[in-house]
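Hey L., structure's done. Input below.
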Amino acid sequence: MSRQPEPTGPAPDETMQLGAVPAHPQPQPQPQPQPQPQPQSQPQANDPYAIPMAPPAPPGLTTSLAPPAPIAPPAAKDRRRLRAVLRWTAAVAVFAVLGAGAAYGVTQETRGDLPGLSTRADGRWDYPKIEKPPLPEGDPAAFAEDNDREEHFADLRALVLPAPKGATEDKTLSGKDGWLPTSTYLDAYGKDGRGDLAQELKDGGLRHIAARGWTMPDGTRTRIYLLRFDTGAFARAYRDTVMSSSTGLVGAPETEEDFSWPGDESHVRYTSLRVLKELRSSGAEQIRQAYIQAGDVVALVVQSRKGSTLTVPFRQTVVLQNQLLG
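Output:
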């Protein structure tokens, strides 16, 4: 056999085989994006435990690509957590309703009807409703700008504090038609100094004295004297004289000013209040006293009681009388 000449052209591609059609290089399989699931293939929205179906493999992918792993149902502890949340939500709603009902009940009850919230009596006396007496027509109030003399034009007898509920009237202070004689007022002071005080009252232009007294069931005796002078200046002068005098009340010859009085709480505008306490008791009872100066009026409030007097009713009485004059 004759030898065939060897081809002189380029060698064929190693990937090409004799008698086969040249083929393009086969691409390596790449992961394709997962197509959106079709609505009909989705589980029902109201079934939280349904397992979604895997979508069919798209054309062109080899079967060597495994379908995505199915979504696992909620773990048992997740279901327990969900049930716990639901239980707590229901409990909060119930307590909110009950709390609103309780709050409504509290606002509807009176304080004394609620256990533990009733107000304990603090010893105050039961005074009647207190109103200032009317002024005569055309006359100004005591501290009006056009009342330079600071006169009280209202009836002085109506400016005396009324007795509280349960009190027994002291008729020795009723006077005649409600006007107290000067001598009866002076009887409240020691004998040695009555003459000097009488002269001060005469020189100071004393016009009237109104008074009231009573005794409470616990034995507390109260006396109130209102002295009206010609002007506010005379009233201030007499107040300073009597407070600096060595003559004290019967049963309380030695006193000093009581600076423990809560002045800021009881202060009435345009008035002055000074409270005296005993340095030592000279008898079987304690005596408290206070002087109020309001314009042309000086008021003396005295309380006495066997053993010791009570602070609350004394302060209550003084404050109310001060308000009537202010």
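Residues 1-28, 38-54, 60-66, 97-120 have pLDDT under 50 and may be disordered. Residues 43 and 50 are 6 Å apart (CA to CA).

-- N.
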